[in-house]
Task: structure prediction
Amino acid sequence: MPLIKFNNKVAEGFYLLATHGQVGGYPDNVFAVSDQLLKGLEHEFRTQGITYQKMDPKTLNGKQPKRKTNA
Result:
């Protein structure tokens, strides 16, 4: 399950994730999503100019998700 952090348009990116599948939210706007969800939204992210970077799970330092959303 990849961890991603949006470089811009965080609210728009999170909205797309939350309305299309299950999302785990970590501090500092880091989100855990499925590979399938991320792949399915690639085109929409590009179309809307939303960019993100994949995060290394080690950077979380044991932090737990703050919230979980089911679509």
